[in-house]
Write the structure tokens for this entry.
Amino acid sequence: MEDGFDVGARLRQLRQERQLSQRELAKRAGVTNSTISLIELNNVSPSVSSLKKILDALPISISAFFAGDEPNHPSPFYRAAELTDIGDGQLIWKLVAARRPDRRMSILHERYPPGSDTGEDMLEHDGEEGGVVVTGQIEITVNGEVSLLGPGDAYYFDSRLPHRFRNIGDEECILISANTPPTFSDGGQELHHA
């Protein structure tokens, strides 16, 4: 998750604004009561898929969860340190222009350490997504079709098809991806790859 961002306090704030108990939020999200409690106390860093389940139950998008105020006339340029990390502590997904108003696409710089995985539950969400592998290898499953992609290889598919990303190699995989409509918007879209 983003450095210095208090995930627990933000989740507690949103839950309380909606007048939900930890138990009720856990029930809606399909997680245990202790999961909500541990996250709110910052005793555990939630996986992207767990956080997404919880935020869907509120409902709020990932970018709205992490959002702050962006100037009315944002710069067209973003330094590496300004990208918002929306990963889960293992997967590093840096979102370009996370707080830009009226953003119509999501662009991510993704890092998958060896052994990392978006999870056994296949992902599905509205839109299309595509990307290019920069370094390493990534195994991508889309609607039952599996391929191992390396540097320079690319993918593009309808995100409503069940999909999963896994680094089965022994070196980090870096890829650049994009999807539309933006899956990290305030429009309630689901998280890319989660």
Notes: The longest helix spans residues 7-17. Residues 185-194 have pLDDT under 50 and may be disordered. DSSP finds five helices and nine strands in the chain. Residues 80-180 form a domain with the Jelly Rolls fold (CATH 2.60.120.10).
